[in-house]
Amino acid sequence: MATAPMALVAAVLSPSHGPRGFTSKAVVPPSNPRAAAVPHRRGRRSSSARCAISTVNSNGRLAEADRATAAVATVGLQDLQATPLLRRERHDEETITMIARVTVHTDSILQDPGKWSFGSIADILFRPNWLRLELVSSELDPKTGEEWEISSYAHNHGRHDDTEFTMVLEASFAVPVSFGPVGAVRVVNEHTREMEIGGITVFREGEESGSDAVTFHCNSWVHPVDKRTFFPLNSYLPSQTPEGVARLRKEELQAIRGDGQGERKSYERVYDYDVYNDLGDPDRDLDTKRPVLGGKDRPYPRRCRTGRGFTKNDPLSEKRSKEAFYVPRDEAFTERKNLTFKAKFALEALNALGQKIRTKDHKSLSFPSLAAIDAMYKDGFRNHPEKDDLDWWSSLIHELEEELGHFLQFEMPEIHDKDKFAWFRDEEFARETLAGMNPLSIQLVTEFPIFSKLDEATYGPADSLITKELIEEQINRVMTAEEAVKNKKLFMLDYHDMLLPYVHAVRELDNTTLYASRTLFFLTADGTLWPIAIELTRPKSKNKPQWRQVFTPGSDGSVTGSWLWQLAKAHVLAHDTGYHQLVSHWLRTHCCVEPYIIAANRQLSQMHPIFRLLHPHFRFTMEINAMARNLLISADGIIEGSFAPGKHCMDLSSAVYDKFWRFDMEALPADLIRRGMAVEGKDGKLELTIEDYPYANDGLLIWDAIKEWVSDYVAHYYPSASDIAGDEELQGWWTEVRTKGHADKQDEPWWPVLDSRDSLIQVLSTIIWVASAHHAAVNFGQPQGDAAAGVGVLLDTFPSQFQSTLALPVLDVLSTHSPGEEYIGTHADPAWLAEGKISSAFEKFRGRMMEIVAEIDDWNEDPERKIRHGAGVVPYVLLKPCYGDPAEKTTVMEMGIPNSISI
User: Fold this and answer.
1) Which end of the chain, N or C, is less packed with Cβ atoms under 10 Å?
2) Helices (H), 405-548
3) Mean pLDDT score, 812-834
């Protein structure tokens, strides 16, 4: 049954190259379709206002700086039917013939062919009237003062685009010459199935590349119950909206906000908030019950509301669905990305199947040797996307062939290629705090002695056993401990106060243990860090006093002392890895960005310039977050099964959000200053405490470039501070981010106020930084972490074979660059080219990215920068912008910085 529809589509449509969306490669239009065009009006006051008309050339590219992403609105079909269209011809006025050419993506048929019958496919291909278009003037009718619409049906026009399954439809309109610039196109899908509209271009008959042509970049789904509105080209602040579409702008926002009621359906585009109350599944197993995250007891950012009912065994827990979690329809993966992601995930699951079958009854079984760990990896295998010159079917087959060729093996960490025993060395242990997968935890020691801030009555003595005498002994008395602090030579990984409250609870779990830890490093004369002490602590309990011990690198010269030091490092690495995944990665990027996305869709019209600036940085994030709630951070998910806190993982994440997360500290410069890793110089520029700190070195280049680009963008649309303060949509967005998206912190005094260009630039730059560069730095280094464990007792301390084969496939999938990925500095959203100054500003931004590539290459070849150059040292490329073809890069880490949290 599924084969026939696919064969029929393949016979009518052709495979593609080129980007999804409107291009002008369509076949030349036929004679006028049969449908008649009629004007419709709604009451409004009159106006003589006019707006600019965009131009496109014969290649579908804007001939001038006039291009934009379409905006979207939804109106129930019942509203359409309840208001009969006024059919009043203007016989007293000359008309011109306008053509609307529509690209419809039909690859959804191939994604779910079982739901399509021969009749339904024949219906879409040959039925004459299933897609109705209405052109809406940007002006009010000068004679009546009413909104002005002209309606017509689109008809099948042939084939289009060689890399995607698409079809082209065309509609013809008799438009009065006084109609004015087209301000919107309304689309009604009268088919029985939802359709994805790629792009729409409206032009005078015979003048496809003429100056009157208007392009709409839609890339959005239209469901049969919806009437959708797409806006063209120019971006407008609310006060500048052309009067002919002002009502539609407000209607669009109202339609997608929802009312907080009912269960959301997969085809809907409703954005609303909810707490994290869907991580457990108590109706299946009471042991999976998990506390609600979000609220007074456990503060947390909000997620997208799905509206499912509550479980029987826990009235606070939302039911889990066997199907994919709801996300607003336009936030979902494209078919190509979805199929590739599922194929990759399935193959990685097969990759681990053999090990899991062997160890499922012995989940605590350790690796028998280092060779057994090495056998899990394949030399020369690199996890990267297929080449873009393959069509999507060929690329999928290519991906399958590549993966099957490496069945039951994973990508070899690059550091392991360079130095097989790097994991064992203290130098690498210290280096990765500055250039590893979690370079966001190292901090300067500013006070000595070191004290805990936790209650001594509950946890035991607050002072540290890392004493002045111990420090001075470890640094060969080159200076006193006080001098080391004063001269900014002491640095620390401090997981003491964060982990100590969870130690006893975690120790009650099977086959796991936990300590709190402090790790002290000394900055040597050659600019590298050297670990000098690790303190592990177990808090006091009812029956036992506090236990704590300090370990140093072989201070007693014994073999036992050396292995105890390795064991202590193993515990620290477990803490650092868990913090990286739960906080640096999940909380600070995926989790905290979702409220910005929800608020933007609810409060910023899609013709708003700030929505169009941010939109590329929100691509696919809500979909990947929904998958995370389903598979990764849920009860018995990958995170709980792979990290020491177990079922307490998300509770710990909430505690960190409560005590440490601040929006104003998420910008890179502020974060570095807070951790003592930088100070602001007299010239306003940052001076790093450790000169060779790759994450900070490269990150500051990216941060400055982002901020300059955002500054140019904001200056164009907001000539004065009053424009910012008076922008009701912008202010509504930022208010909702604070009061709904991050409701548990809404009363904090540190929230920025959008009352000036500087404050707006800082807010926007911070969001773009977190969604792009911050995420890239903590995500794509995941498979490159420590590759091996130790021997003997040390092997028993590290993850079991079962845990490793559970975690490695997921890390492999999550660190894969997706087909069709959009990279910062290389992908220009069409809206950014809608204004000449914005187009020029982006070209400047693009050029700066290429300069940064050269600077990073120079630093990676500088022998004075020992953190990133030298024998056995991996160059730092996690924040290296994209250049050339990502598929040709040696490692996943140097493919570039994606615009968004899309994986």
Assistant:
1) N
2) 414-418, 426-435, 456-459, 468-474, 481-486, 496-499, 503-507
3) 80
Matching residue, tokens 């009006």: 41
Residue 61: predicted pLDDT: 30
Q: Which of 157, 608, 617, 775 is catalytic?
A: 775
pLDDT tens-digit series, residues 215-238: 898 989 899 877 899 998 789 999
Sign, CA torsion 841/844/850/856: negative
> What is the tens place of the pLDDT at every residue in 681-694?
888 889 999 999 99
Rounded CA-CA distance 326/318 in Å is: 13
This prediction has a pTM of 0.83
Per the rule left: phi > 0, alpha: psi between -120 and 50, beta: everything else, 231 is beta
- In the chain, % helix, strand, coil (3-state, to 5) comes to 40, 15, 45
Alpha-carbon gap, residue 606 to 139, rounded angstroms: 19
DSSP annotation of 363 = T
CA gap 518, 532 in Å, rounded: 11
- Give the separation between CA 158 and CA 27, rounded to whole angstroms: 7
Q: Is 903 known to be catalytic?
A: yes
d(CA 76, CA 256): 11
Q: Which of 219, 234, 697, 779 is catalytic?
A: 779
Residue 436 corresponds to which amino acid? G
Mean pLDDT of the chain: 80
Confidence of residue 11 (pLDDT cuts 50, 70, 90): very low
The pLDDT, as a whole number, for residue 62 is 32
Which residues face 484 on adjacent strands?
Answer: none
Rounded to an integer, what distance in angstroms lies between the CA atom of residue 424 and that of residue 402? 32
pLDDT above 90 (res 193): no
Annotated active-site residue 716? The verdict is: no
Does residue 487 carry a catalytic annotation?
A: no
Q: What is the DSSP string of 26-77?
A: SPPP-SPPSPPPEEEEEE--------PPP-B-TTSSBSSS---B--EEEEEH
Catalytic annotation on 742?
A: no
- For the chain, how far is it from start to end, CA to CA, in angstroms? 33
CA distances from 757 to 88, 207, 462, 680, 718 (A): 48, 42, 45, 21, 8
Residue 281 pLDDT exceeds 60: yes
Angstrom distance (rounded) from CA 150 to CA 136? 7
Instruction: Please give the single-letter amino acid code of residue 885.
Output: D
* Spatial distance between the Cα atoms of 822 and 825, rounded to a whole number of angstroms: 9
Give the DSSP per-residue string, 183-213: EEEEEEE-SSS-EEEEEEEEEETT-TTSTT-
What DSSP designation does 146 have? E
Question: Of residues 466, 598, 690, 903, which has the active-site annotation?
Answer: 903
Residue tagged active-site, from 157, 496, 590, 774: 590
| Closest of 723, 716, 663, 753 to residue 834, by C-alpha | 716
Query: Which of the residues 571, 575, 585, 615 is marked catalytic?
Result: 585
Q: With CA atoms as reference, report the closest residue to 576 among 443, 694, 674.
A: 443
For residue 398, indicate whether it is catalytic: no
